[in-house]
């Protein structure tokens, strides 16, 4: 069992694109995958065709009301893929939880007893380092950081690694950055190559070998309400996320967090 927060406080770096398509590819490999949409923008929810009803149960109810996580889960058409949908009201959670004791571990508590049912739980985080992201970092064992390789923004990564360190010290000693994902890569530009070199220089083997190329099919994909491998099989985006999934599965054995969980 692996719990992975897909996070980067910078907006638009492909967190949601990665959660949806990595999650779907893992599920196609037979892995039982739960995608938890923690962003009030609810992009992951709508991408997979959920959240159209006037009123539906969401992670808002889980975090703020007494609703158990199991009650909000929705099954996607891929057999082993489930979604915990978000809703715009989730934006209010930051304020509602602000003064509560134990506010950083609400999500972790709500997942108790549920985690055994999955091989992967992926948290799609909002573009901020607020209470919701801290909840994801407290509930997860691993962090994947998608990085946009079209701009050099390594300062933001320093802030993020400090936040992760603070969560590790205070709330979740087992938390580890296990993957940096180079996204929106354009090999024709010096800049993309330079950013990738810098990432590999700074984070070494934590950077996945798979690079997600810039691909217009990925940008079109959400409207289809399908993951990329169903919307545009054979596209660069489908190939890259499949390759990433294979790499992620390959790291199961060597990942100490995953092994420790299996032994429990
Ligand atoms: N490899 C890619 N090639 C082309 N477009 C991409 C690629 N990856 C993501 N995009 C596009 O970039 C935009 C941002 O992606 P996405 O929504 O996944 O980022 P995000 O980090 O989740 O954003 P936010 O911080 O707002 O939650 C979207 O329009 C998406 O379609
Ligand atoms: Mg997003």
Please tell me about this protein's structure.
It is a single chain. The chain has 264 residues and is of the alpha/beta class. It has one domain: P-loop containing nucleotide triphosphate hydrolases (Rossmann fold, 3-Layer(aba) Sandwich). It is built from 12 helices and 7 strands. Helix 1 (15-28) packs across helix 11. It binds adenosine-5'-triphosphate and magnesium ion.
Count of structural domains = 1
The CATH topology annotation reads as: Rossmann fold
**Integer average pLDDT:** 94
Helical content class:
40-55%
What is the name of the CATH superfamily? P-loop containing nucleotide triphosphate hydrolases
- Distance from first to last alpha carbon: 10 Å
Give the class-level CATH name: Alpha Beta
Q: List how many beta strands DSSP finds.
A: 7
Show unreliable segments. Answer: 255-264
CATH architecture: 3-Layer(aba) Sandwich
Q: Rounded to an integer, what's the Rg over CA atoms? A: 17 Å
Beta percentage is 5-15%
Question: Structural class of the helix and strand makeup?
Answer: alpha/beta
Main β-sheet description: 7 strands, mixed
Strand order of the largest sheet: 3-4-2-5-1-6-7
Order of helices and strands: EHEHHEEHHEHEHEHHHHH
The shape is: globular
